[in-house]
Amino acid sequence: MTLIRDLHTEDIPALTALAHVSVPLACPPDTKREDIDQHLDAVYSPGNLADWLANPALELRGAFSDEQLVGLLMLGAEASPVPVPASRSARELSKLYVHPSAHGQGIAATLLADARARARTQGHDALWLSTSKSNARALAFYRKQGFREFGERQFWVGNDPQPDWLLVLPLD
């Protein structure tokens, strides 16, 4: 059984480990390893993770299986770079990662259901996210869950600018 709970500072080592195995899978296959490493070192450093955990505008939730962190969900506070269609209040789904050993077990769907419920409770009418145009696995999952493209943006992995889709999921 999967347990979903808020993450805390004692989870930082497990968060770092999860990021190092799951984030590279979200990158286009031609992304240079040094750019991925630079991104991981900057974004998923223990200090940055501690800052996220201390920020009341962010929500970090973890999926645990047999007491091991196997999934990460982060509801962010960033506004979409382009207006979210048919939404008066969209919440950012900033991170959704699952350890490769747990792929296919429904953990991403469980984390997304948690995000939907939390966003609705907070008065939001949509979730928005950004994901790599080349991440076929993530795009298939998000489309199956009801997300639709509404724009594009550039996302930097290290020194590599990468094209992302902006996706929206209405919550009503």
TrEMBL record:
GO molecular function list: acyltransferase activity, transferring groups other than amino-acyl groups
CDD domains: NAT_SF
SUPFAM superfamilies: Acyl-CoA N-acyltransferases (Nat)
Keywords: Acyltransferase, Transferase
Location of the N-acetyltransferase domain: 2-172
Entry annotated with the keyword Cytoplasm: no
Alphabetical list of PANTHER family matching this protein: AMINOALKYLPHOSPHONATE N-ACETYLTRANSFERASE-RELATED, AMINOALKYLPHOSPHONATE N-ACETYLTRANSFERASE-RELATED-RELATED
UniProt-recorded name of the protein: N-acetyltransferase domain-containing protein
Lineage: Bacteria, Pseudomonadati, Pseudomonadota, Gammaproteobacteria, Lysobacterales
